[in-house]
Amino acid sequence: MTTQFKITATAPTAYQYNSLSRFGMNIKKNGNGSFTSEQVFDSEEEAKAYLVECAERYYDEFEGQVDEHLEDIDKYGQLTIDAVTAHIEEVEQEEEVEG
Fold it and tell me: Theoretical Cys-Cys bridge with 85: which of 24, 58, 61, 80, CB 3.0 to 4.6 Å?
């Protein structure tokens, strides 16, 4: 088993789709009309660095108030853009057996 870190963000309806797209991850539509994005990283530091890039890109462009969002990433491993919150979770991946 390998430990990895996954960022997951969900937009409950199509109205939040643009907010979800700002995270820059592939988006899939769920059966209930919501949308989800996920991306897996090898370390928590890489996942947090990705969220920091998203925060700096979004909040510098629109609001200029990035500091509190960087603090949330550091403390809680999460970032909120408009109505969508992305969070980091630790996941165990089965190692592929060659042969």
Answer: 80
Tell me the pLDDT tens digit for each residue of 37-91: 999 999 999 999 999 999 998 887 665 678 888 999 999 999 999 889 999 999 9
d(CA 39, CA 70): 19
Q: How far apart are CA 58 and CA 69, in angstroms?
A: 11
Write down the pLDDT at residue 78.
96
Q: Are 88 and 44 in contact (CB under 8 A)?
A: yes
User: Could you give the residue ranges of the DSSP H alpha helices within 4-66?
Assistant: 17-21, 44-62
State the burial class of residue 54 (Cβ atoms within 10 Å of its Cβ: 0-12, 13-18, 19+): buried
- Supply the pTM of this predicted model: 0.86
CA distance 69 to 62: 13
